[in-house]
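Two quick folds needed for the group meeting slides. Do the first one here.
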Amino acid sequence: MGMRKYILRRMVGVIVVFFIILTALFILFRLAPGDPVSRMVDPSLTPEDAAYLIDQLGLNQPLGIQYIYYLKNVFTGFMGISFHYGQPVTEIILDRLPNTIYLFTTSVILSALLGIFMGKIAAWHRETKIDSVMTIVALFCHTLFLPWLALIMIWFFGYRVGWFPLSGMISPEVWVTPGTSSIIKFLDVLHHMALPLLTLMIIHYGSYLLIMRSSMLDTLNEDYIITARAKGLDEKSIRDHHAAPNAALPLVTSVGLSLAFSINGGALTETVFTWPGIGRELVFAVSSNDYPLAQACFLLIAGVVLMANLVVDVMYAYLDPRIRY
């Protein structure tokens, strides 16, 4: 099968799966107990006002009619109005999405680069103390419970030592002060970003190291590595220019999917660090039965992950000439 036919076939599969997810989300959110109106902030809302609000939101329509409007909104790019904020869902997502991308894309890239580098060294020094220590540290990091680690980081570096802010993304006093330079604002964001970034790097670093180490060990037994040694190439050249690039191929899938899943913002991370991103907004939308906002967040995540799978498969074919479709 040619590459073009493979991509077209996969695109059809992506569309079908996306439509199934779209329908499942509509059904699941309507089956959830409670209604958005009962969870709204104003406790003095009268039954008449509540009935009027339900009518305005379209929640008194038959499910079939709601589903038609739901599909129309999705395919026209209008994801509805948030029940809680009273704003278009698209505006809310576009406001939160960059915050999530800054934090999680940076953490994935940095932890992957560190994991690849350390995994390469661990495999090259296999069955030595260096390999043992690196592997044990990687396993420890890989099995850490993220909320526990996040709270420890906040308690020690934020509260006890006082090096970093305890929560949030910016210091309001810095941003509202007239004449504050863009560099100062950027450094303020980095200061707030340090703790969640370090936490995510510690969590992800271990898995990348272990994958790279395992792949590197398999690659070092290949015939072309033996041939390179027979040609008299130095060990560093064999490791860095022959073994490592081929061993890093399995990480293409891992890093690609990690970048895709980072779009959900890691609900736990953003909630613990009070980081204003998609993950934190998703948790709030689900807990408050804000159907349009929750559905839009889930659809965004599903769409990005589905496309990431397709892109990773295509990249594999270009990176590894042995793969044919």
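Then this one, please, same format:
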Amino acid sequence: MADSRPVTVVLARFEDLVGAGLRSLIADDPNLRVVAADVPLADLSAAIAEHAPRVALLNFGTLRAPAEIRRLTADHPDTRLVVLANHPTPGECAQLLALGATACLGKRVEGRDVLNTIHLASRGLHVLPHATPATPGAPLLPDVLTPREAEVLDQLQLGRSNAEIAMALSVSIETVRTHASSVFRKLGVKGRRELARGGSYPRGPL
């Protein structure tokens, strides 16, 4: 039997107009219910623990580093994280999903897309924005893995040695070590063992 209860949502702190728009949008959907809103980053984990929402909407602009998504996912595995960012590229969103988010959207998407994403995320379905080309020369979001680092992360998650990764990616072992160190730093882990303890990282469609 399907669960007919509204999907509960926690809203992190957003810019005034964005936050007000999200609250109004969700209030108009009888199948959604906001249980906490305008939650600052420092209180977000506690709010999720208190209300146990099905979905939490995060403002990428308030995160100190994308690795915080990984920590929230580890601490609250039953809450799906939807990240809203200003101008995310599909590659950047794929990286956020690799860190544990369930969905990633741009803040300028239509309201119906936000609602659909919340409903899909509540069921564990991954959502990425429509493919849009990155602005030439635009920097990656802070601490987001480079494409090569993401490839190394994939190999690390398969439990492969530095030599095996070097062979698979046709690079030197020293290059693998350099990329692996950068991956560990950006994900906020000390090494392979801690990365493995963090569990598998959900992958969205690329």
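Slide caption for protein two: DSSP finds nine helices and five strands in the chain.
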